[in-house]
Amino acid sequence: xxxxxGYGTVAKLSGNRRNPFVVxxxxxxxxxxxxxxxxxxxxxxxxxxxIALAEYNRSPYDVxxxxxTFEELYNKWLxxxxxxxxxxxxxxxxxxxxHCSSIYKMKYKDIRAFHMQDCIDNCGRSYSTQxxxxxxxxxxDKYAIGLDIIVRNYxxxxxxxxxxxxxKKPFTDDEVNALWNISGEPWVDSALVFLYSGWRISxxxxxxxxxxxxxxxxxKGGVKTKSGKGRIVPIHSKIFDMVKRRYDEGGEYLFTHNGxxxxxSQYYIFWNDIMKKINAKHTVHECRHTFRTRxxxxxxxxxxxxxxxxxxxxxxxxxxxxxxxxxxLKEAIEMIxx
Length: 338
Description:
It contains 13 helices and eight strands. It folds into three domains: 1-59, no CATH class; 61-161, DNA polymerase, domain 1, CATH 1.10.150; 173-333, Intergrase catalytic core (hpI Integrase, Chain A, Orthogonal Bundle), CATH 1.10.443.10. Strand 1 and strand 2 form a beta hairpin. The strands form three sheets. Strands 1-2-3 form a three-stranded antiparallel beta sheet. It has a three-stranded antiparallel beta sheet with strand order 4-5-6. A two-stranded antiparallel ribbon has the order 7-8. It has 338 residues and is an alpha+beta fold. Helix 4 runs antiparallel to helix 5 (127-146) and helix 7 packs across helix 11.
């Protein structure tokens, strides 16, 4: 189909290129009558180029390499180039952006690896935030290269604190008892809910009040995999009152802070304080590992364990939660008695 005049074109360049399709529009003519092009970007397939051209025509953006700042490029990437990222990943990158204020107003073409490294080194956070900042720079560099703003990916030259080796240490019985001893203190209830339900941090913090059925004694949630989404976990009797208290607060989400959903970064502040109180060093994800380990230790049915964890099982078949299934899951989870 022929595009209307002034719409722009997608042309294939010669040679062996990673992004061989150039998207451009004619912005004028030189003295010889040859077109002067505004290059919108370079893409791996014609289809990608056509999508980019359509997006540009719907909301034109300034691609002048001599003017665009870090802040402007970030906002353009957020609106045009970040659509395929998952919610959790995108939230992490948005949080990382807040640590880059020192270069917000810099022209992107002038930013070098040492500017990026300063943002990473001076963020004052752990390896997870440092790697999120580095990841953001990588996304923006690729986007800028596609817009012909830069020709080199400087983010590849940056470093972040090494990710520590972990062995997924389950909580000991003494550590679990230590949490029960301070269960009335702020946010300790959340740690115990993690330990007796096996939710991932994103699953529990993202759980809405409507996903909790107090009468049936169940919680519904899950992300990441087909088997994990929409799974139902019975509320263990030991944490039922805690869950009900949170439920009775009436917020949109089960766990809220100042009436709002708790972000992962905010929750880790609470978590680190809890770990100091019981003199332990665990990640939130190790609650999930502990839950699985304890179910194994008491001899719970493997199919039930897989359902509770949101793992696929060769014997599970269709994920249909009948009354019998829920009773079996409740029996399995109540086998954890300490």
